[in-house]
Amino acid sequence: MSPLERLIAEAEITRLVTRYAVLNDEADFDGAAALFTEDGTLTRPSGGEPIRGRAAILAAYKARPPRISRHIISNVLVDVTSATEARCRSTMLLFTAPPGELPAKASQPALLGGFEDRLVKQGDTWLFAERRGWLDLKVEA
User: More exposed terminus of the chain, fewer Cβ within 10 Å: N or C?
Assistant: First the structure.
């Protein structure tokens, strides 16, 4: 893999991580689930057992009560291990509120955590094979 190919892969994966946050915040769960491989797994930052398979991930998102959310993603660090495999770690700050008019008042303290991802390239597209989230802090005003 050339240095240019590695930089392109890093940019594509960083975009994937950001796209996931945007789709999640827009409640576009079909779009968010499509960013996983068919047999991908998701462990939510709030914990619980891993959710296995794209269809199960989609069902889990659709079963969640409606909310307003804003994920702020930073410190995205991509490690491309081959032309078709990579790992990524990112930091997340999450604000949530009940559904309603914007601007909304946050319903709980902001949550600080992150994601550790295993990614694979299928065709021309990077996808999450595994996305494991965690929480570190509740940020109270």
Answer: C
Residue 132: Cβ within 10 Å count: 17
Residues 22-56: b if buried by 16+ CB within 10 A, e if exposed: ebbbebebeebbebbbeebbbbbbeeeeebebbeb
Task: Band the pLDDT of 105: cuts 50, 70, 90.
Answer: confident
Which CATH number goes with the domain that contains 80? 3.10.450.50
What's the number of domains the chain is made of? 1
Residue 110 sits in which domain range?
3-139
Rg, Å, the chain Cα set: 15
> What value does the mean pLDDT take over residues 82-95?
97
Q: Phi, psi (5° rounding) for residue 85? A: -140, 145
